[in-house]
Design a protein that fits this description.
The chain has 72 residues and is mainly alpha-helical. The protein contains 2 helices and no strands.
């Protein structure tokens, strides 16, 4: 029983923005590493997650402004 038989999705519409999200979060974490590698290990690990989430926030603003239309 295939529940999604009649649903057709354009996968390229989803793949492009997700790749950009992944790259953006990696770059934000890398910049965080360059700037704050001198912090103690526990504090560095604690702040690394919010730094990556900040990268997701940076990605979400242009996507909300219509940037996702580029991938249609």
């Amino acid at each position: 029983m295939n529940v999604f038989e009649g649903i057709n999705l354009n996968t390229m519409q989803f793949i492009g923005p997700i790749i950009i999200l992944f790259i953006n979060m990696i770059l934000t974490a890398f910049i965080f590493n360059l700037l704050f590698s001198w912090l103690p290990k526990k504090l560095y690990n604690f702040l690394l997650g919010p730094a990556a989430l900040f990268g997701a926030y940076i990605w979400a603003i242009p996507m909300n402004m219509g940037f996702y239309d580029l991938f249609k």
